[in-house]
Amino acid sequence: MAVVAKTGIYKITNTVNGKQYVGSSMDFEGRRRRHLNCLKRNCHGNKHLQLAWNKYGDNAFVFKLIGTCAPGRLVEMEQEVMDHLKPEYNISSTAGSLLGFRHGEETRAKMSATRRGKSNGRKGKCHSPETKAKM
User: Fold this and answer.
1) Nearest to 54, CA basis, from 44, 63, 64, 62
2) Residue 77: closest CA among 11, 20, 15, 19
3) Per-residue pLDDT tens for 73-118?
4) Whole-angstrom Cα distance, residue 21 to residue 35?
5) Beta bridge partner(s), residue 20
6) Residue 68 β-bridge partners
7) What pLDDT was estimated at residue 2?
8) Is the pLDDT of residue 65 over 60?
9) Which helix (DSSP H) or strand (DSSP E) does residue 43 occupy?
């Protein structure tokens, strides 16, 4: 028996303070697992949600599929839900897009420092004779 993926809108709710995150996915269970995996490994892309997870713990968060829809309507419905709930953990107020989001000055400086001097990758670097022999 094949498992049918649930396409729809979901929310992650912090049961301690009531703050929420709203998202959409073609596969709710898969998306929930990816969120949990990143949050547990402390590497989630949403820093605000990650800090709350670290502070309150995994037992304080509830994942819930709040509506299903056709794949072509995901972004539209997600935006409607976001406009209604005004989720505090979402980075952008625009569904399906980071349009208009700007990293802070400190973050931009860190990203710049990380990239500095790495533009050429391994250009000009050679394998050692031992590595060449193994290859």
Assistant:
1) 44
2) 11
3) 999 999 999 999 999 999 888 887 554 557 788 888 888 887 776 6
4) 11
5) 13
6) 8
7) 46
8) yes
9) none
Alpha helices in 2-134 (DSSP H): 28-40, 47-56, 74-85, 105-115, 129-134
The helix/strand/coil state of 2 is coil
**22: Cβ contacts below 8 Å, ≥ 6 apart:** 9, 10, 11, 78, 81, 82, 85, 87, 90, 95
Read off the pLDDT of residues 29-46 as tens digits, 9 standing for 90 and up. 999 999 999 999 999 999
Taking the C-alpha atoms of 73, 46, 88 and 61 in order, what is their torsion angle to the nearest 10 degrees? 90
Whose structure tokens read 């049918």?
Answer: 4
Q: Tell me how far apart the alpha carbons of residues 67 and 14 are, in angstroms, rounded to a whole number.
A: 19
Neighbours of 9 (CB within 10 A): 25
Q: What is the pTM of this model?
A: 0.69
Which of 22-26, 49-53, 118-122 has the weakest average pLDDT?
118-122
Both tokens of residue 17? 């303070």
